[in-house]
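Sample 3 of the quickstart, ligand arginine:
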Amino acid sequence: GDETSTSASGSAQEPAAPGAGSVKQQISNLVALSLRATVPEVDVEPIVEVCTGKFGDYQCNNAMGLWSKVKGSGTSFKNPNAIGQAIAKNLPACDVIESASVAGPGFVNIVLSKSWVAKRIQDMLVNGITTWAPILPVKRVVLDFSSPNIAKEMHVGHLRSTIIGDTLARMFEFSNVEVLRRNHVGDWGTQFGMLIEFLFEKFPNWEELGSQAIGDLQVFYKASKQRFDEDAEFKDRAQQAVVRLQGGEEKYRAAWKKICEISRNEFDQVYKLLDVQLEEKGESFYNPYIPQVLEKLSSQGLIEESEGARVIFIQGHQIPLIVVKRDGGFNYASTDLAALWYRLNVEKAEWIIYVTDVGQQQHFDMFFKAARMAGWLPDPKEKKFPKTSHVGFGLVLGADGKRFRTRSTEVVRLGDLLDEAKSRSKSELLQRLTENGKIVDWTDEELEQTSKAVGYGAVKYADLKNNRLTNYTFSFDQMLSDKGNTAVYLQYAHARICSIIRKSNMDVEELKVSGNISLAHPDERVLGLYLIRYAEIVEEACTNLLPSVLCEYLYNLSEMFTRFYTNCQVVGSPEEPSRLLLCEATAVVMRQCFQLLGITPVYKL
Ligand code: ARG
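Result:
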C-alpha cells in the first residue's frame, strides 16, 4: 500500500520527543513508518546506515532482506528494487528529508534537507550540546574500572583501565544514563596476612602513625613478601592473621583498614591528576554476600565438588570455575559472582561493564556463563538486558617492544609519567612562543595550565585513539607531536578556531540567536552533516564500548573543518555571519569530544 501509517504499534522503542535522539535514530523512525506502510504484513527493524556513496547522506538497506521474506508469498512486488521504490515513496513527508532515490537492488539513498541540518546546528548552539545526546536503551550502568590492588603496584594496565573506563562513563553520562562508577579494588586476599603481621612487627606503634610514616606501600609490600618467603615462623603468623582478619578480630580489621587507607591516598592522587571520579566498593564489600550467593547456586545444582574444591563446570571450558578453594577460602571468582548478584539485584543495573586487560577475558567469560546458567542473565543472542560486557584492552609497550616500564623502577609511576608529559609539552610551548615573540602575552599560570591540559591530554588520547584490543607503543615524542592524529594537533586545531572567532568583529553570542546558518557551499554542507552526526557517534561508541570511535570522529571533524576553512573564506566575506556560526559549532562539538575523552580543551595556543 502507499498510504502512510502513523500508528506506532509493535515498536519496542519508547516514543521519543520529536527531534530527540541521533539523526540516524530519527531517520530510522521515519523509515520504520515507511516499512510499516510498505509491508504491513512483515515486522522488521529499519536498517539505516550512513551513505558510503555520493547519492545520499543516509541509506536504508531493508529492501533485499524484505524481498527474501515476501517473495513467493503472492506479493505484488516484482524485485527488491521495487520494494526500495515503495520504501522511498512511503517515507512520510517531513522537513528532515529532501529527497530519496533508489539504487541497484533497492538501496534507498536519502538526502537530508540543508535547511533542516542548518536548523539542527543552530538549535544546538542556542540550547546547548546536551540537546544532541543520543537515546540509549539503558537507564543504569555499573562501570567497574581502574580497580587496582591494595599495596600492590598500580601498573600501566590500571592506567589504561582508568582512562578507558572514565571515557565510557562520561559518554554514558552525557547520554543521560546513570553510571555507577565502581572501583573494585583488590582489598581482600591472603596478602593481607603478611602485610598486617609486617606492620605489627615493623611499627609497634602503628595505630598512632599517619600514612606518611609507613612510606611507600610497594616497598612495604616487597619487604613483607621477602619476610614471608624467608621465615617460616613469620609465614605461619601471617597465615593465622588472614584467618583472624576474616574472622573479624578488631585489631586485625584496624590494621587492614590502615593499610587500605594508605593505598587509597596513593590512588586518589592519581585520580585527581587524571580528573577521574570513582566510588570504591572493593572486593571486601562483597565478601558478606558470598555465602548466600553460593548457597543459591548450590541449590540450583550448579556447584560441584572437584579435587577438594567447589567448582562450577562450564560448557566449552576444560577447567571449571573454582568458587571455593581447597582450604575453604573464597577467591576472585566467588567475589565477582557475589558482586554481580549485588549489582543486578541491589543496584538494579541493566548493563554491567568491566574494564580490564584482555588477559582476564577467560575469567569474565566463565563467570558470565555461570551467571547465565543460573538464570541471572538472558541468552546474549536475544539482545536483551540485563547484560554484562568485558571491555578488554591490550598491552602498553615500551620502545623496546616489551611491556612498558620506566628506567629506574620496575613499574611505571603514573604521577611521574604525567609529570613528564607536562614538562615536555611546556618546553615545546615555551620554545614556540619565544620563537614567535609571543611569550610576552602569556602569564605563568596560563603556561602551567596549558602544558598540563596538553600534556595529560596527550597521554590519554594516545591510549584512547587505538582500538583498545591492540597493543600500543608508549612514546612521548609521538603523542606530543603537533602533526598527525594526536591530542596536541587537535588542541591546536581547536585553539585556531577560537582565534578565528576572536578575530572577527562579530559577536557570536548575538549571531546564535539572530543569525542564520546556510550550507550553500559543498564544504559547508559536508561539515554541517558531519557535525550533526555527533550523537550517533557517541551512541555507537557507547553501544560497542569503543572510545576510539569518538577519537576518530574528532580527528575527522578537524580535517573537515580545515577543508571548509581552506575553501570558504570566513572573516571579511559576505557569508561571515553564517560561517562564523559553523566555526562556533565546530568548536563546541570539538570541546564536547575533549570533555568526553577527559581532556581539558585550551582556547589559546
Ligand atoms: N583488581 C583486578 C586487577 O588488578 C581488577 C578487578 C576488575 N574487576 C572485577 N570485578 N574483577 O587485575
